[in-house]
Amino acid sequence: MPRAVHVVEGRTRELRELVRARQQLQRKRVALINTIRGYVQQEDHRLPEKFLAGPTWAAKLERLSVSAPLRLIIETFMTSIDALAAAEQRLTMRVQAIQDSRCPLLESIPAIGPLSARVLLSALDDAQRFDDQKAVANDGALAPTIYQSGEVRRVVLQCAHTVVRMKSHGAKPLQQFFARIAR
User: Fold this and answer.
1) Do residues 81 and 33 lie in contact, with contact meaning Cβ atoms separated by under 8 Å?
2) Of 7, 22, 37, whose CA–CA distance to 154 is shortest?
3) Count of C-beta atoms within a 10 Å radius of residue 95
4) Measured distance CA(106)–CA(156) in Å, rounded
5) Per-residue pLDDT tens for 28-48?
6) CA quadruple 15, 21, 24, 30: dihedral positive or negative?
7) pTM here?
8) DSSP string, 18-51
9) Are the C-beta atoms of 42 and 13 separated by less than 8 Å?
10) Contacts of 152 (CB under 8 A, 6+ apart)
11) Helix, strand or coil for residue 124?
12) What are the b/e assignments for 2-25, b being 16+ CB within 10 Å?
């Protein structure tokens, strides 16, 4: 049975498009980083985890003993990676600037911040379009199904990892729920 199409307009549509664009930039940036790691591995080197993160990569590269061609490849790719990161940040700021009365409620949940709230809102928008909680879980990729929003799964997973590490009393019920599921 084909799935009914839900037309999204206005602020939710804008939010959804911005979230998707941000996700595409993020994927391209990560792909370029992985490409650099592949080139480095060909010279039997291994870059530390956060080596390419942030503006200090150039100084770290100076101290790395790699061939001149590899150094040029890394510098060239990093120009694109930096540009993608800046574009991603621009979209992130625009996503976070979108106001919706439901965002503060979502943000009141431990580990859900402004960006996560808006990503969830963009994916789930109108609760009336779902038959029940199971339908929300299926659509949000929280349960295995053909129709999934991978972005929601990633956001919820990141929030779950954050809540497990939180020290606040408000996170305790979610931590206990997480522990039950883990068992």
Assistant:
1) yes
2) 22
3) 21
4) 12
5) 999 999 999 999 999 998 888
6) negative
7) 0.74
8) HHHHHHHHHHHHHHHHHHHHHHHHHTT----TTT
9) no
10) 119, 120, 123, 124, 139, 140, 141, 142
11) helix
12) eeeeeebeeebeebbebbeebbeb
HSE-CB for 4 with a 13 A CA cutoff? 7
Q: Locate 38 and state its tokens.
A: 């592949």
How many CB atoms are located within 10 Å of the residue 163 CB?
Answer: 21
> Is residue 149's pLDDT more than 60?
no
Closest by Cα among 85, 69, 6 to 36: 69
| Four-residue CA torsion sign, 17, 20, 24, 30 | positive
Supply 55's token pair: 């503006």
Task: Determine the Cα–Cα distance for residues 76 and 81; give it in Å rounded to an integer.
Answer: 9
Instruction: Show Cβ contacts of residue 11 under 8 Å, excluding neighbours closer than 6 positions.
Output: 98, 100
The token pair that represents 145 in the structure block: 């199904």
Is residue 110 within 8 Å of 173, Cβ to Cβ? no
Tokens of 22: 């941000």
Token pair recorded at residue 17: 């498009």
Euclidean distance between CA atoms 58 and 163, whole angstroms: 34
**Does the pLDDT of residue 178 top 90, yes or no?**
no
